[in-house]
Design brief:
alpha/beta, 10 strands, globular, binds flavin mononucleotide
Length: about 375
């Protein structure tokens, strides 16, 4: 908790630093780390920082309208909470605190398959809009039952993660022999036997769990399969190429999420903001394209929207808010990004999200 004598953090980066100081090393490392040398993790940020914004002036903007319609729903800003596993490691209220903060802000929450509260418990906690992220298990009946439960519980979309046929090697987790504490499980899956993310000798417990449970051989046909077992729209998360984006659309994806899993899977993958344009051009307006990876400022959201993203997702910032101050911390993280986005729009001369054009980003679209 932040205390009255301690002013609340003023930026996502400050939330990150406070979370680092407060969380046990094993937990902080699990949240913060990327794969291998963490090149892609750094690249996501560096690419945003490298892009300049070229503002327009004297546009009579006043108070900008930050809202946007995506998938038939009005969002207060083009921002969605990304799925992150095991939120209870950050705070005892875990995904429930995230749900409440999101519901209060009207922000859509994407719940991970590997959440530490069940998908039903999260719905009971708060009535906000919600998507469900799908990892396809080797056990298709189990996957199907999860998807059916999500649909029955009122989740509005499925987010199929396609960049994790195997788990990236997060060396900090290997070094720490990452495990979940006693009594903490992927709550959507208990009380099945063998679900524990337990110590695994020389490796990360999560890596062992993943290898034993998750299907490493998915194909585009599995997108068709997922669509055949649910009426919910399926977004494909983890695309970084135009040709894959076209394939996703041809297999009926309702949306594409340009993502490298926050630098946690293939190290050396490109920064997402650097490949956004290629994906947007390949998709050619047929479905919305979203992006995540390294979004930490309102100006990052402007850059992504300028280059064609319908919305962005944030992963770690939510975990930092949760670690520092539970539900209030998540609420503050969402509010900070909302305030920053509104200010960046005003400073760029954009009165509406539709007015955020590629001309704002020199060299990438507008000269
Ligand atoms: C601790 C942690 C756990 C994650 N767990 C999942 C997951 O269960 N499923 C998934 O599709 N992506 C997962 N991701 C990836 C996020 O959905 C998202 O792509 C990434 O965090 C975005 O980058 P950012 O953290 O820089 O905002 C996880 C990311 C982190 C940091």
């Amino acid at each position: 908790m932040t205390t009255p004598s301690e002013p609340p953090p003023v930026s996502i980066a400050e939330y990150g630093r406070l979370a680092a100081a407060r969380l046990p090393v094993m937990t902080y490392d699990y949240f913060a780390s990327g794969a291998d040398d963490e090149v892609t993790l750094r690249r996501n940020r560096e690419a945003f920082e490298r892009l300049a914004l070229r503002p327009r002036v004297l546009r009579g903007v006043g108070v900008p309208d930050t809202s946007v319609e995506v998938f038939g729903r009005r969002h207060p800003l083009p921002l969605i909470v990304a799925p992150t596993a095991f939120a209870r490691l950050a705070h005892p209220d875990g995904e429930i605190a995230v749900a409440r903060a999101c519901a209060a802000a009207g922000v859509t929450q994407t719940l991970s398959t590997l959440s530490t509260y069940s998908l039903e418990a999260v719905v009971e906690a708060g009535g906000g809009p919600r998507w469900f992220q799908v990892y396809v298990f080797r056990d298709r009946a189990l996957t199907r039952s999860l998807v059916e439960r999500a649909e029955a519980a009122g989740y509005e979309s499925l987010v199929l993660t396609v960049d994790a046929p195997v788990l990236g090697s997060r060396e900090r987790d290997v070094r720490n022999r990452f495990v979940l504490p006693e009594g903490m499980y992927p709550a959507n899956l208990v009380p099945e036997e063998g679900q524990e993310v337990r110590p695994a000798g020389e490796e990360s417990g999560l890596a062992r769990y993943f290898t034993s449970r998750i299907d490493p051989a998915l194909t585009w046909d599995d997108v068709d399969w997922l669509r055949s077992v649910s009426r919910l729209p399926v977004l494909v998360k983890g695309v970084v190429r135009g040709d894959d984006a076209r394939l996703a659309v041809s297999h009926g994806a309702a949306g594409i999420i340009v993502s490298n899993h926050g630098g946690r899977q293939l190290d050396s993958a490109p920064a997402t903001i650097d490949v956004l344009r290629e994906v947007v051009e390949a998709v050619a307006g047929r479905v919305p394209v979203l992006l995540d990876g390294g979004v930490r400022r309102g100006t990052d959201i402007v850059k992504a929207v300028a280059l064609g993203a319908a919305a962005v997702l944030i992963g770690r910032p939510v975990l930092w808010g949760l670690a520092v101050d539970g539900e209030a911390g998540v609420a503050r993280v969402l509010a900070l990004l909302h305030e920053e986005f509104a200010r960046a729009m005003a400073l760029c001369g954009c009165g509406s999200v539709a007015g955020i054009g590629a001309d704002l980003v020199p060299g990438q679209g507008g000269g």
